[in-house]
Specification:
- Helix content is 57%, strand content 0%.
- It is mainly alpha-helical.
- α2 packs across α6 and α4 runs antiparallel to α6.
- It comes from Pararobbsia alpina.
Length: 121
């Protein structure tokens, strides 16, 4: 019986480590840049993602990569999940075909851009 528990515990530990390592992702800024260009993000968010074409679109340049990742992920989920999803038809269409890895890459690229976001002091 103890041997079964030990094997079970080892299997659970292995799966846990596998899940944690699968979640770790070294973001690729160059891929993020390519994705931003191919999805024409500048059409709304402006040149270098810092000069939106309309005041209702946010400045993105310099934003934290985690924020960008979770915002894009929320657009993928959509309004179907009111606790997490975001409802915007344009953004939802833009991100549907992207993987979580792609979203991390976009976040890393956006964070690397110089921007004029100001944090409260």
């Amino acid at each position: 019986m103890n041997q079964r528990i030990s094997k079970f515990a080892a299997a659970v530990a292995f799966l846990g480590l596998t899940a944690v390592s699968a979640g770790a992702h070294a973001a690729d800024v160059d891929n993020g840049k390519a994705l931003v260009a191919s999805h024409n993000c500048a059409a709304c968010h402006g040149a270098n993602l810092n000069t939106p074409v309309s005041p209702e679109y946010p400045k993105l340049a310099g934003q934290f990569n985690d924020y960008i990742f979770f915002a894009l992920r929320a657009y993928q989920v959509g309004a179907g999940n009111p606790l997490f999803g975001r409802n915007n038809a344009i953004m939802a269409a833009q991100v549907q075909g992207l993987s979580e890895s792609d979203l991390h890459d976009i976040g890393a690229y956006v964070q690397s851009l110089p921007g004029d976001l100001v944090q409260k002091k």
